[in-house]
Design brief:
alpha/beta
């Protein structure tokens, strides 16, 4: 009998997600793969065509069983809708665990993005079925939150750290993306290297192709270029980018340029700040660009 694996991830096909290829490979090698995920969304904050907040359906894609949760449209400007979208998956995915518990799994893999509480359903099922749970830390919490929101309260920071460690501690193994992250968890949780294998992010094959655009090369000749590849799920820190740009303007780094891809509220906010600070010479806003056009 084929082994059955549950993958818990916030984003999955048809969205571009780092876990898509892994699921496809597992299914192709004979594993039964179930995926618990949210509704696929666009970079502009809406849902992809054919999906919405309330029509929850089960899908099968390349032999992968997909279980989607109720979702909330993130939108682009409303802080309320962004917040609701942020907390929806941890809550609604827990409601799915009763149904998924009927399946007997060999292991659970959590592809942990924000917030760290999204790990809850995978941890719960693994505990009930007494099986190993592997948590891939794609976004380190609470540090990732601080890159998006400037949390000043020391008390709240302490609470967030305690909450995050609560979830990380429950995993059978933490899969980390760097030796520095491994040291971070070793210092806080006392975990060994064996409990924390390092698996770096795998680049998309398209990034390994040599593509030369003569026009673009001419525009950026003599400059050091920084690429900001969009604003997935409101994760772009406008404040950080502006601070870097202002430091460059005040110093000697006048040959540095930013190429900004994508659309959304954070991109628009960055454009406004760039205009207000008179930093237009340092930025190229390219809008939405398909991967094949990069």
């Amino acid at each position: 009998m084929a082994r059955r694996i549950l993958i818990v991830c916030r984003h999955f096909w048809p969205e571009p997600s780092g876990v898509n290829d892994l699921c496809a490979r597992l299914a192709a090698t004979g594993y039964k793969v179930d995926v618990l995920c949210g509704q696929p969304s666009t970079q502009e904050g809406g849902f992809m065509k054919g999906y919405n907040s309330h029509k929850v359906r089960r899908e099968i894609h390349h032999k992968i069983n997909i279980y989607r949760t109720i979702d909330v449209r993130k939108g682009t400007d409303s802080h309320i809708s962004i917040f609701l979208n942020y907390i929806t998956f941890p809550i609604t995915s827990l409601l799915k665990t009763g149904k998924l518990m009927k399946n007997r799994y060999s292991a659970v893999l959590i592809y942990q993005l924000s917030p760290v509480m999204m790990s809850a359903p995978g941890l719960r099922i693994a505990k009930k079925q007494e099986i190993p749970v592997y948590l891939y830390v794609a976004e380190l919490w609470p540090q990732h939150l601080y890159s998006v929101i400037d949390v000043q309260s020391r008390l709240f920071r302490k609470f967030l750290t305690t909450l995050s460690m609560h979830y990380y501690r429950k995993a059978s193994k933490l899969i980390v993306t760097s030796p520095a992250m491994r040291k971070y968890f070793a210092d806080r949780l006392g975990l060994t290297d064996e409990q924390m294998p390092v698996v770096t992010h795998s680049p998309d094959p398209i990034w390994q192709e040599d593509i030369l655009d003569e026009t673009l090369l001419e525009q950026l000749a003599g400059s050091f270029t920084l690429l900001i590849p969009g604003d997935r799920q409101g994760q772009l820190s406008v404040k950080t980018v502006m601070r870097i740009a202002q430091m460059i303007q005040a110093g000697e780094g006048r040959n540095i340029r930013f190429i900004v891809l994508g659309t959304g509220s954070r991109i628009r906010e960055l454009q406004q700040q760039v205009s207000l600070e008179g930093l237009e010479d340092y930025f190229y806003f390219e809008g939405k660009v398909e991967p094949g056009d990069l």
